[in-house]
Amino acid sequence: MNRPKVLVTRQIPEAALKLLRQHCEVVVNPYDRGMTREELLEGVRGKDGVLCLLTDIIDDEVYEAAGEQCKIFANYAVGYNNIDVQAATKRRIIITNTPGVLDDATADLAWALLFAVSRRIVEADRYTREGRFQIWGPMLYLGRDITGKTLGIIGAGRIGSNFGRKARGFDMKILYTNTKPNKKFEEETGAMYVDKETLLRESDFISIHLPLLSSTRHYIGEKELDMMKRTAVLINTSRGPVIDEKALVRALKEKKIWGAGLDVFENEPKLEPGLAELDNVVVVPHIGSATIETRTNMGLIAVKNMIQAFSGEIPDHCVNPEVLHLKK
């Protein structure tokens, strides 16, 4: 029996590749970069499955290039806004993702950014490395207290709730806004469900944990930034376009808010002009899930999804389950 042929669009942890090779014939992108559009279209040709990344735009042209035998595209991510799920379903192609596994890692990074911005860690590190630290002074790199302050959480799903639970150690008042109240989260943390405007006006720190939808694009813009305290810190580890980056740059330049910490960007990987030059923002290259354990587990989940699909089973993390009731 011929083994399924699979394309992996970029190198992933070896433990996941090892498991995949036990079940499939595997071709891995040999370059330490994303595949070009031409390489992707050629690479998927004749494959039974594709393990893809958020940086890969998977649309009907890709499905057409892959061929009618293609059974699954397994996204190595929780989000799948890079994939045309509707077109995949019409072609009876399974789409899967890797939810749950990166909740802790992403919530941890949001806290790392919150501390880095609030206590001016990057600025102080650079100052010290450049040999400018000569003597301690009472006004040297003053930051903002975190313990006992008000934390605003936008989106109380898995990662937002995880982030909020970690705030208990800092004795913070927690406000949150969500599509609906999350009673379990409230019981665990004492968080209060409020409207968007109340959260923006009253929070000392605001962390965004939203999916990218038409309703969440530019969820934070000029109007929202104007509502925030001048001492507020804004953190985004969700999706770049939920913030109007042009408006954010203006707000940071004009010191309308204290600072921002960003793991994602509106036009990723490009930064909005002027953002990189600002000292009151910390920017990192989409590393929310970038721990050895988490990235390995993401790979193992994506591979397991593929193996289940090829075995005729329902993948654990199928995002278009209606396709399972259709026949090729």
TrEMBL record:
<dbReference type="InterPro" id="IPR029752">
    <property type="entry name" value="D-isomer_DH_CS1"/>
</dbReference>
<dbReference type="InterPro" id="IPR006140">
    <property type="entry name" value="D-isomer_DH_NAD-bd"/>
</dbReference>
<dbReference type="InterPro" id="IPR036291">
    <property type="entry name" value="NAD(P)-bd_dom_sf"/>
</dbReference>
<keyword id="KW-0560">Oxidoreductase</keyword>
<dbReference type="InterPro" id="IPR006139">
    <property type="entry name" value="D-isomer_2_OHA_DH_cat_dom"/>
</dbReference>
<dbReference type="Pfam" id="PF02826">
    <property type="entry name" value="2-Hacid_dh_C"/>
</dbReference>
<dbReference type="GO" id="GO:0051287">
    <property type="term" value="F:NAD binding"/>
</dbReference>
<feature type="domain" description="D-isomer specific 2-hydroxyacid dehydrogenase NAD-binding">
    <location>
        <begin position="112"/>
        <end position="288"/>
    </location>
</feature>
<comment type="similarity">
    <text>Belongs to the D-isomer specific 2-hydroxyacid dehydrogenase family.</text>
</comment>
<dbReference type="InterPro" id="IPR029753">
    <property type="entry name" value="D-isomer_DH_CS"/>
</dbReference>
<protein>
    <submittedName>
        <fullName>Putative 2-hydroxyacid dehydrogenase</fullName>
        <ecNumber>1.1.1.-</ecNumber>
    </submittedName>
</protein>
<dbReference type="InterPro" id="IPR050223">
    <property type="entry name" value="D-isomer_2-hydroxyacid_DH"/>
</dbReference>
<dbReference type="GO" id="GO:0016618">
    <property type="term" value="F:hydroxypyruvate reductase [NAD(P)H] activity"/>
</dbReference>
<dbReference type="GO" id="GO:0030267">
    <property type="term" value="F:glyoxylate reductase (NADPH) activity"/>
</dbReference>
<feature type="domain" description="D-isomer specific 2-hydroxyacid dehydrogenase catalytic">
    <location>
        <begin position="6"/>
        <end position="320"/>
    </location>
</feature>
<dbReference type="Pfam" id="PF00389">
    <property type="entry name" value="2-Hacid_dh"/>
</dbReference>
<dbReference type="GO" id="GO:0005829">
    <property type="term" value="C:cytosol"/>
</dbReference>
